[in-house]
Amino acid sequence: MAEGTLEVRIWRGGDEGAFGAYAVPARENQTVLDVVTEVQRRFEPSLAYRFSCRVGVCGSCAMTINGTPRWTCRTHVKRVAPEGRLTIEPLRNMKRVKDLACDMDGFLGKWASVGTFEGTATRADPPAAIDPASPARREVDAAIQCINCAVCHAACDVVAWDPHYLGPAALNRAWTLYNDARVADRRAVLDGALQPGGCHTCHSHGACTEHCPVGLSPTASIAGLKRAGLVSLLKGGRS
After folding, report:
1. Which of 8, 18, 209, 212 could bond to 219 as cystine, CB 3.0-4.6 Å?
2. pTM of the predicted structure, to 2 decimals
3. What's the pLDDT score for residue 3?
């Protein structure tokens, strides 16, 4: 490999496929998304991958880079490939559709299954008075910035072992709903999180928290659900 050149391997195909090998010029401040785009423009016009904002906001460009799930637009090549070798795959724990694009329906379905925001107030009611300093509100604020990029889902070993496990993003969502005083049926949210495949399936490895691009801790949210379930049990099933 010539000096100043990256050795790049990119997955081609669906679940059945193979890596393609490419030589890409190394550039200053080059991101992994830059590399994928250059391969698509110069060598593989049919290469399938997702991206949108390119500035670390949308999360749609997440892929597996040298074995680690990351947002490719915020991942500089020099940081993850000091020897100039990149292996780029789609996110794990989801069906591969084509090349670097995976099917997120299962992930999003689990996220939606934990519940939706259904309050009791009507348009005629005044806005709910929520104390921003209250413990419950602080719990919500610490977990609410999830944008469904699925990096935590791809990083989770338990998701890989158990297809019925809701996963860290869905349970993080359940924790925000459970702590939101405006939600009409918080008990139903907790009951859903306590079902088989819910929070007690988590082994607390912490990979979701380690890899979250926006610094959330699904591990802490899941632990909160476990505590809430125990408190409910000691109270005789009341939230």
Report:
1. 209
2. 0.91
3. 60
